[in-house]
Amino acid sequence: MQCAQHKTCTLGFWPGGSLIITTPHKTFLAYFSYVIMGEYVIRTAPIGTHHWSKFIAFSTMKSMLKKRGCQIGRTGHFYYNPLTRRWYRTVIYPRFNYLLHATKPKI
User: Fold this and answer.
1) C-alpha atoms less than 13 angstroms from C-alpha of 21 in its C-beta half-sphere
2) Taken in order 80, 34, 11, 105, is the CA torsion positive or negative?
3) What's the domain of life for this entry (predicted)?
């Protein structure tokens, strides 16, 4: 399932199920990377694809999921290098993208 609005993801999330979210951080570097570089300079995405108001900070996403009764599992931070066309997992630069695994306990 791909969620256009992450805030609605947990509505159809069954007890005992898993949800994996990958999304940009709400940081200047993510905005610069996705909007400025991706849409206007390199043009890997159409202009207007990414909107700052829809970026969600990692801590906010975790809080939203916990409020809806989810348990947070593995998390990770990663970035894409357009020169090498590869994704890299990172601990040093957790400012671009994150991956979050959540589960909803069985009732």
Assistant:
1) 27
2) positive
3) Eukaryota
